[in-house]
Amino acid sequence: MSKKWVYMFSEGDASMRNLLGGKGANLAEMTKLGLPIPQGFTVTTEACTDYYDQGKTISEEIKGQIEDALKVVEEINNKKFGDNNNPLLVSVRSGARASMPGMMDTILNLGLNDVAVEGFAAGTGNPRFAYDSYRRFIQMFSDVVMGISKSKFERVLDEIKEQKGVKLDTELDADDLKEVVVKFKALYKEDMGKDFPQDPKEQLMEAVTAVFRSWDNPRAIVYRRMNDIPGDWGTAVNVQTMVFGNMGDTSGTGVAFTRNPATGENGIFGEYLINAQGEDVVAGIRTPQPITKLEEDMPEVYKQFMEIASKLENHYRDMQDMEFTIENGKLYFLQTRNGKRTAAAALKIAVDLVDEGMLTEKEAVMKVEPKQLDQLLHPNFDAAALKAAKVVAKGLAASPGAAAGRVYFTAEDAKEAGARGERVVLVRLETSPEDIEGMAASEGILTVRGGMTSHAAVVARGMGTCCVSGCGEITVNEEEKYFTVAGQKIVEGEYISIDGSTGNVYLEDIKTVKPEISGNFARFMGWADAARRLKVRANGDNPRDVKNAVEFGAEGIGLCRTEHMFFEEARIPIVRKMILSKTEEERRKYLDQLLPMQKGDFKGMYESLGGRPMTVRLLDPPLHEFLPSHEEDIRTLAAEMGVSYEELAATVASLHEFNPMMGHRGCRLAVTYPEIAEMQARAIMEAAVEVSQEKGYEIVPEIMIPLVGEVKELAYVKGIVVETANKVLEEKNAKMEYKVGTMIEIPRAALTADEIAKEAEFFSFGTNDLTQMTFGFSRDDAGKFLDSYYEKKIYEFDPFAKLDQTGVGQLVQMAAEKGRKTRPDIKLGICGEHGGDPSSIEFCHKVGLNYVSCSPFRVPVARLAAAQAAINQK
Amino acid sequence: MSKKWVYMFSEGDASMRNLLGGKGANLAEMTKLGLPIPQGFTVTTEACTDYYDQGKTISEEIKGQIEDALKVVEEINNKKFGDNNNPLLVSVRSGARASMPGMMDTILNLGLNDVAVEGFAAGTGNPRFAYDSYRRFIQMFSDVVMGISKSKFERVLDEIKEQKGVKLDTELDADDLKEVVVKFKALYKEDMGKDFPQDPKEQLMEAVTAVFRSWDNPRAIVYRRMNDIPGDWGTAVNVQTMVFGNMGDTSGTGVAFTRNPATGENGIFGEYLINAQGEDVVAGIRTPQPITKLEEDMPEVYKQFMEIASKLENHYRDMQDMEFTIENGKLYFLQTRNGKRTAAAALKIAVDLVDEGMLTEKEAVMKVEPKQLDQLLHPNFDAAALKAAKVVAKGLAASPGAAAGRVYFTAEDAKEAGARGERVVLVRLETSPEDIEGMAASEGILTVRGGMTSHAAVVARGMGTCCVSGCGEITVNEEEKYFTVAGQKIVEGEYISIDGSTGNVYLEDIKTVKPEISGNFARFMGWADAARRLKVRANGDNPRDVKNAVEFGAEGIGLCRTEHMFFEEARIPIVRKMILSKTEEERRKYLDQLLPMQKGDFKGMYESLGGRPMTVRLLDPPLHEFLPSHEEDIRTLAAEMGVSYEELAATVASLHEFNPMMGHRGCRLAVTYPEIAEMQARAIMEAAVEVSQEKGYEIVPEIMIPLVGEVKELAYVKGIVVETANKVLEEKNAKMEYKVGTMIEIPRAALTADEIAKEAEFFSFGTNDLTQMTFGFSRDDAGKFLDSYYEKKIYEFDPFAKLDQTGVGQLVQMAAEKGRKTRPDIKLGICGEHGGDPSSIEFCHKVGLNYVSCSPFRVPVARLAAAQAAINQK
């Protein structure tokens, strides 16, 4: 029943990534390729999950296998752990399936103790080096394994430097460092109540445990959530013979990329330091040399390095990010992996690799992370300017891009400032539909409340405007027009900058740069389009959105939210009067005034679409969202409507709901006020017929009835729509096919999709609401507890950002199957926020939807994700 | 492909109820028994649904079959339709599967026209009778078939009576009635723009159509909803040869029951009128004779009648409700059916029929409508006093029983008046948890807002207190302490009466009577208990509830809502301080104060339960429900807590939620504040252990974690509960089994029930919330549109009162199956409002739940419904 928990590097290969982690698999692969790799072994990711399953203990079986592997390493190196003459030292590093740089812990120089350090000094002939290594090990082990703060050790070191009257660590000699070691051990004993462990095996087991434990440290959890990495993957642990780049002038260490990770340019790119360890390169005390300089310093080593780099790139068929060390003139590779790169570099590398014959087009499509494309579509901060800037607060990265401008606190002020030509950042507690014009006039939007799917976030993404939401660290006083953060007060008109891709907030005017889209983009996206089966539409509510969407490659509009048209300044008073009408007759009067406006919008959209399809959703939100809440506004409206303030205020109050999200909205409005649906159906059909006649486009209007939970309610509203549509066609003496369908956004609709498909000609999954109802929490309120849920590892990701395939996905799949059973040619799409999320898109591909619809700026992301899903499935 | 749409009475029998309707099937059965039945035929219920499927038209095939059947009736009677000598006349009556008295339409004397009336006059030798029949037919046909108001005809009749100087219709002679007929036909022509139809076949088709159409009239829709009759059943139409009880002193008509429908006493009970038609018995102009008087008037007929009545009761093995007519000394039966009866009568009849050897005990169990038992458990109005009372408004029949008392408008006032010994009716806009003590002090509760599952309704049912909710016809001014209705103003202290079984409101002090429970009840319920498989528990939150529940036969508590204990006067300030605590330490301080109180309640409940099981739910509602909303209360609390008003007000405001039902509640509270769950688990376990030690009861506490949607959140909270429970057992040095389970009330919990069952030892279906989430509407807000939904036949019943088996039921079944797959011995129950609804209980039985839990006063209903479900399934 025993299982293999530990693999020597010589026992694995690159295909074993899930078991050995990325780093372990690549070390094994490089060993197999015969490259110079300090040997060692990998404790598997399964051992990590076993550690957690066993209540955070490493089983005896695993411990035994680690000890056995260690013996093999000793034999290979002909060194012994803890030997008093030339002892074996190892590094212990994490290595998960997916790269998580800096998230988990590393321990170097493990194996040193009071005896071994002497042997090490003798073996290397360098006592200073040996004691420096030992004191570094004590510090690292204490910090990483035992949780003793690093700064305590730094303080001891500083004291000794002061005593000796020196400034740099390097100015301390071997004896000084011996003293440091003594003091470090004393510090350890004081804190831990026991001696620093002298048994290297004990050190090793503790270190492995620490790496396993670090899988669940808070920054790793956050990183995983941001990068869709499941918590049950676990991390592997790599135990590797130490090599030293700091043994003199024929030693060194460095990192290099086979191509430029910023531009993608083909050519080695990297840097190294003579006589240094890896951490020195990072620390930035000495300035590293460009890698090409190595050719002068050590021509033979350089030649060997370049050969191996080229071999690795050819082998992995991707740009490589490599770490290496030169120990006394001998080159070792410590790591290789596919290098992280900017979006522009990713495109160039993908296209170049195809041109170089290294990849097929489909393979190239897999080389770019869909979410990265965002970088190409939004302004970013100038890299140099950003480096100097200080983050004062962090909110949610709600809509990508960077923005800098003067702060304003009301939509009205933002609008006016925008009209004056100012760059504006709108700062609000939260936004509401009334703010829409002010939002459109702003470079960026910052809100205190609200999550990734709050009004601000959704609208900003739709507009392609940068947005940081839910930034609870700032306190806004909208009335007195200032906000405070970190003890500072920022008043109207002062400059701030926000980064919607990271959530960072800065109190300064940081330079932004517009992205340049190269020819590589079009070529690359062409390959993606050729590979995908899913169509990609955009959500858009007006002709401007449609133009954006089409430019980004949308094949139609998947969701036109008609209510967004209702908020425009000229319209909202009529909308309000319509809502507050006491009789159908009165309501029809105001609807008649709205008809030409809605129709005009639809005509504009149909014109911009040039024959591409568009799904228009009938009025959806609860009516009170359109109503004024301030006394003053109600008084004005009452005067206009010729009723008393008291009466109107009472009517407004009567529309209050306990749970508006689950109240009188969606098709429920059309059931109680059929005349609203009638007006909207007429506006859509008249617009479609007129544009079709004027422009010759072939239009098949798709009219969508929202919030259906029961087939009879769909049938009722559909009856009104069909009757109206046919009347319009008759009046205009026109023939036109049109489709009536529904959103699937209520669990009961999914459960009874076979019935609903009898009436619905298409389904569009409204996964925002479906997620809310299926989980039983509203996205506006979930902020109060979701952080606790992430912290306690109950949820690993935000189900509003990434589709919950286990629960919500079950309903989507069920509805798709039931729908197709009743109506085999039913058209299926998704129009929730998930329509722009790559992992959700992959799910949509798998369950066989026809299209996804997302905000215009996400369309390229969706096109690429759809392509990757199709390629993955094969 | 032709189908049989029409059955002669001689072609059917009692088993064909679904196809022929109740009346049609019984007429066929009586024909088969050789009883004297005027012959005719039945158009099937399928023809009715076909009529609706074909867009409200009767197909040619059906019309043809009707005409063929008519020919057979002509042959049987040797009369011809529209004959100028002794023509055939028929009645046209509806007859659905379930009896719906008075809901649909009837037409008598069909077949008369200008020619036939003469033949009829000649044939009967009674021209006055013939013309009276004709004018009645014109009036009835015009009203029922054509929708011309009856009152127009009454006005014409009144004019003629005035001209003739007479007062009664009977004083008009044949010539007068001829004139009436002429004027009626003129009126018809004026209204319809065409002549009154002379073709009897046309009359018949129109009449059949009218009956089909009446299936969907508003009162029928309401009746069906109240009586759980599906809208797709349709009604059959019975066309029957007319017989006349108004042909002289050897004619007559009457209705009779084989046993007394009010008391159940065995013996004929009924009344009749000599020389009259059925409508005259109802009209009340002449006083009918008791049926026994018939023995004197017509001994032969009486003897025959009694023989047939006895034969029918023996045949149907149930008390019969019969209609009969005597035409010229010849007895005809027009209808028989199982008679409606009071609850007391139902019990007596069921028990007597067993004692008489006519029924087995199981058969007897099927003879009582479960909902009827309500009558036996609550006060009712004195029948005579009620007759004289005037209904001034109608709300929802939210909690059964009758109440009369002085009105009070605040819980405080109600409590004080109750303490003074007054009978109190509490009148509120809506109730909230703070009103609970005032509600307990009241005889009845009347609210303006809120549905069948509003706070007032749920709490009142739990207390067994009469409640009328959602009575929008009254306007309450709580501050000035009065309400107005129908133009009248009722101030504090005035008497009103309300009927929670009908929703009626009266402005007077109507005498109420307490129900008497006879020995029949216990005997009958014993048979029910023997027949059922489902256990029946009650929902209860305190020792008083438990006592009630046990008295009503509950086998345990299925849901103890711990939050209800939080609202008591002495506790709420501590609860508030606990909620508003800034630190865990502070919160624990207040929790420590609450612990002994909760524990005391649990001890009281465990003592009353005497070893029966109890499921205790951890804190569920959103926290702001406990908080004060008035400035004054916040100020008081702030002073007590030693914080500023502003600070406390801000904290209270920060707990505001957009959609509280989908907010920070249920197990989400335990995830963010584990110390609350800890305190509650401790209170439950300490209480259980102490009662078990003191009383020797064997207690297995069942701790229920609410609102779970994801197994990991259950695992987390369960971890806290288990740790605490084990600690208590250790402290008390006790051994006790306990179970931890969850509510299934969120769709995702049902969808992932296989995962959840890994942690949950029991499931309790919280179908209130599950219905809300599955339908996507909150019960508090649905009132705004549900009426439109009923009106437009989108919903046929209130899904909060009767479980929606199509949608919500699918989730329940799925969860039951998945749960059992993971954990075969998982205990499954339901604790939503549906646990007391008979049709929902039948569903619970079918999907194999272990128990249902309902309010204490519904326990007998649930026991009977569970028995009937078990018997039905066999």
Automatic annotation (TrEMBL), chains A, B:
Substrate binds at residues 561, 617, 745, 766-769. It catalyses: pyruvate + phosphate + ATP = phosphoenolpyruvate + AMP + diphosphate + H(+). The active site is at residues 455, 831. Residues 59-297, 303-352 form the Pyruvate phosphate dikinase AMP/ATP-binding domain. Residues 422-503 form the PEP-utilising enzyme mobile domain. One of its GO terms (molecular function) is pyruvate, phosphate dikinase activity. Its EC number is 2.7.9.1. It is an enzyme of class 2 (transferase). It comes from the Bacteria. NCBIfam families: PRK05878.1, pyru_phos_dikin. Belongs to the PEP-utilizing enzyme family. This is Pyruvate, phosphate dikinase. It comes from Bianquea renquensis.
